[in-house]
Automatic annotation (TrEMBL):
<dbReference type="GO" id="GO:0005634">
    <property type="term" value="C:nucleus"/>
</dbReference>
<feature type="repeat" description="WD">
    <location>
        <begin position="342"/>
        <end position="375"/>
    </location>
</feature>
<keyword id="KW-0853">WD repeat</keyword>
<feature type="repeat" description="WD">
    <location>
        <begin position="215"/>
        <end position="257"/>
    </location>
</feature>
<dbReference type="InterPro" id="IPR020472">
    <property type="entry name" value="WD40_PAC1"/>
</dbReference>
<dbReference type="Pfam" id="PF00400">
    <property type="entry name" value="WD40"/>
</dbReference>
<dbReference type="InterPro" id="IPR036322">
    <property type="entry name" value="WD40_repeat_dom_sf"/>
</dbReference>
<keyword id="KW-0597">Phosphoprotein</keyword>
<keyword id="KW-0677">Repeat</keyword>
<dbReference type="GO" id="GO:0006364">
    <property type="term" value="P:rRNA processing"/>
</dbReference>
<protein>
    <recommendedName>
        <fullName>Periodic tryptophan protein 1 homolog</fullName>
    </recommendedName>
</protein>
<dbReference type="InterPro" id="IPR044285">
    <property type="entry name" value="PWP1"/>
</dbReference>
<dbReference type="InterPro" id="IPR015943">
    <property type="entry name" value="WD40/YVTN_repeat-like_dom_sf"/>
</dbReference>
<dbReference type="InterPro" id="IPR001680">
    <property type="entry name" value="WD40_rpt"/>
</dbReference>
<dbReference type="InterPro" id="IPR019775">
    <property type="entry name" value="WD40_repeat_CS"/>
</dbReference>
């Protein structure tokens, strides 16, 4: 019965590719013995109990509004130990003596699977499995046709969004992952460290009456993150609390707060070239473009439903896509307004990814289980090229690889098939549609190691 309880939830809410050459070839490995692990677990559980007591039992780590998409409300009602469940440590209260074999002090970093090659891509996947929330780091190598989990991190709350970045104050460019979750606190993990139990740094702070500390940052779940590759010390975040924060990573605090929306901010993305320009979408059925030098001055467009996903068109710098809860996809030109709109899905659009190399290629995914491949280059309205149910259940997310123009990673909620990587060139109709199209090579702002 206990095993059945733990395995009934298993899904991937968010994925993110990491470009080739961004990771260390030989990541550092933290060595923990059994006693150290037990001590850390006990300290963490004690800290959670203190925090819950201070909150009066009403933890802000979980919000009803953010839960709806993932059906967490019923899941949370089944057991009162929410804090320990969110951290995934409720089953680690005692480690049996026979588990000693799993805590090795030997250095096995030279094992072949531990080495990350320059031609490898990483894929970051947030996973919720039973009581545990996990960040999985996959290695994908197209030439070798290999895909495997290289290492993972145990997270303190359900991951809702992830963003790669290379910036930590006072350090040379690195390999980091920022995670937005049911908690208002953003955690940034060093992907070049294996077996790490704590993030490299955090953004935000809950208020504490006992310590006399005021809160910093968001007051509710963080729904999306976007790192500014042009100003690499700036990270944008959108939240259930209706705000957009621009974090100064060097100071560890918000430099700018934008309160221009009337509902949850579900999605945002920095412009690829204009460092000051931020696109954001909300459940108030609007999309806004901000000049963050004076964010009170912004452009606003209405869309047909809650804004679920947005994306700049990397090959048309004035244009962007917005996908909604009604299944619509809108395409806007900042200079002239809406260019076209299509009824892409019968249910809400949960995934949207635009090719930065193949003109006209974009993909959508939905809670109807379908992934659709579109071509917007050769007519005034996009043409549906192909659609498929990948048997992933509700498709939560998908993203095209930045290095391989036709390779896609996707996550869903089918417990036995919730993560997949597929090559569009293996689909005949897609290959024939795009094989003669000249690919564009964009200049990258990231510096390989």
């Amino acid at each position: 019965m206990e095993l059945e309880q733990q395995s009934k939830v298993n899904f991937i809410p968010c994925v993110r590719w990491v470009k080739k050459g961004m990771a260390k070839c030989n990541p550092e490995k933290v060595q923990l013995n059994k006693e150290e692990l037990v001590r850390i677990i006990n300290q963490t559980k004690a800290g959670l109990r203190i925090a819950e007591a201070e909150d009066g039992g009403e933890s802000s780590m979980v919000t009803e509004n953010a839960n709806d998409e993932y059906n967490f409300e019923k899941y949370d009602e089944e057991d009162g130990n929410n804090a320990e469940q969110l951290l995934g440590i409720s089953s680690l209260a005692e480690i049996p003596a026979e588990a000693e074999d799993h805590f090795s002090d030997s250095d096995d970093s030279e094992k072949e699977d531990d080495v990350i090659k320059p031609e490898d891509n990483l894929i970051l996947a947030g996973r919720v499995e039973g009581d545990a929330s996990i960040l999985e780091v996959y290695v994908y190598n197209e030439a070798e046709e290999s895909l495997y989990v290289h290492h993972d991190f145990l997270l303190p709350a359900f991951p809702l969004c992830i963003e790669w970045l290379d910036h930590e104050a006072g350090h040379p460019p690195g390999n980091y992952c920022a995670i937005g979750s049911m908690s208002p606190i953003i955690e940034v993990w060093d992907l070049d460290i294996i077996n790490c139990l704590e993030p490299a740094f955090k953004l935000g702070r809950k208020p504490s009456r006992k310590k006399g500390l005021s809160g910093i940052g968001h007051t509710d779940a963080v729904l999306d993150l976007s790192w500014n590759k042009n100003y690499d010390h700036i990270l944008a975040s959108g939240s259930v609390d209706k705000s957009v924060l621009l974090w100064d990573l060097d100071q560890g605090e918000p430099a700018t707060t934008i309160n221009a929306f009337n509902d949850k901010v579900q999605c945002l993305e920095w412009h690829k070239l204009e460092a000051q320009t931020l696109l954001a979408g909300s459940c108030d059925q609007t999309v806004k473009v901000f000049d963050c030098r004076s964010p009170e001055n912004h452009q606003t467009w209405q869309v047909s439903g809650e804004t679920e996903r947005i994306a700049w068109n990397p090959l048309e710098p004035f244009s962007f896509f917005a996908a909604t809860s009604t299944g619509m996809v809108h395409y806007f030109d900042c200079r002239q307004g809406q260019v076209w709109s299509i009824n892409a899905h019968e249910k809400e659009v949960t995934g949207l990814t635009i090719s930065g190399q193949c003109p006209g290629l974009f993909l959508t995914a939905s809670s109807d289980g379908l992934v659709k491949i579109w071509d917007s280059a050769e007519s005034t309205q996009p043409n549906l090229v192909y659609e498929k149910d990948f048997s992933m259940g509700l498709v939560h997310c998908l993203q095209l690889c930045p290095d391989l123009p036709f390779v896609v990673a996707a996550g869903g909620d089918n417990k036995s098939n919730n993560f997949t990587v597929f090559d569009l060139q293996n689909i005949d109709v897609v290959k024939h549609r795009f094989e003669s199209r000249s690919l564009v090579q964009l200049v990258s702002q990231e510096t390989p190691k």
